[in-house]
Amino acid sequence: MQHEPIVKSSISKQIAEQLRHAIINGQFKTGERLPTEDELAKRYGVSRATVREALKRLAAQNLIRSRRGPTGGNFVTQPTHEELAESLSGAATLLVGLGSMSIDEIIEARRVLQGGCLKLAARHATSDHIEQARAALDRQKLTGLTDEAFCQADVTFHRALVDASDNGMIRFVMYAIIEALVPITNMVLSYVKERHEIIAIHEHLLTALENRSEVDLDQALNRLLDYLTETFQEAQIQRDGHKLAVTPQE
User: Fold this and answer.
1) Do 96 and 141 share a domain, yes or no?
2) What is the pLDDT of residues 141-194, one digit of tens each?
3) Is residue 1 part of a domain?
4) Residues 194-225: pLDDT tens digits?
């Protein structure tokens, strides 16, 4: 492994980037232990604290995991789709919250991408995928379930449909898109308070998947996204009206 000269600004970040490139390029294999903190500190001419900060950056990216004990150290790990998509989902959710992405853009992206995903799911879904989706749907039907728990079950349900596509790249992208809609679903549930329609559409989706019907899957998805769009607009009106009602008058 070759080491490039280190510029004095953001040293720990630069070290983390060099180690990250080494991992991505295959210089360090999955399961292989990285050099010790002392060894890395000597190689880069920095303190152990700086190296430790760089390693924390890699751990935050799910590229390494530490193990204690005589045979311990920092080992290269292979991130799962869920771990990688989590960071992408966080960025997408932030952009939605800041208004950088509109509801129409997200709905359109989901309509196109999940529509294609469901076609693959109709061909590749296993009994395990169907059981996972059914379990998530059953959770959504529980009495007294909080809005947050309902949304989490919603994410789990759609992840099961995405997993059924049997395509790693689609799963990675769709995880982010599904979770980017969570704040919108939360608003719908908080202000409109209608779960029965979402549950009914999920039932339609699951039945269509069990029947391997691409047409029915597509119809159910469009029905769901149309419903979310309409109820989101209603929820916005109710939220804005609530804000006006509680704002002190000058």
Assistant:
1) yes
2) 999 998 889 988 998 999 999 999 999 888 888 887 787 777 667 667 666 677
3) no
4) 789 999 999 999 999 999 999 999 999 999 99
| Spatial distance between the Cα atoms of 142 and 164, rounded to a whole number of angstroms | 25
Please tell me what DSSP assigns to residue 116: H
* Residues contacting residue 95 through CB under 8 Å, at least 6 positions apart: 101, 180
What pTM was computed for the model? 0.67
- Residue at token pair 């269509």: 208
Of 224, 229, 226, the residue nearest 137 (C-alpha)? 224
The residue type found at 47 is S
Buried b (16+ CB within 10 A) or exposed e, 224-242: bbebbbebbeebeeeeeee
Listed residues 76, 91, 112: the one ending a domain: 76
Domain around 49: 11-76
Q: Is residue 142 part of a domain?
A: yes
- Single out the residue in 25, 57, 76 at which a domain terminates: 76
Q: At what angle do helices 147-163 and 182-191 cross, to 10 degrees?
A: 140
DSSP reduced 3-state for 33: strand
* Rounded-to-integer distance, Cα 47 and Cα 40, Å: 9
**Residue 238 falls within a domain, yes or no?**
yes
| Number of domains, the chain | 2
* Packing angle, helices 168-180 and 81-97, rounded to 10: 30
DSSP label at residue 59: H
What is the DSSP-derived secondary structure letter of residue 248? P
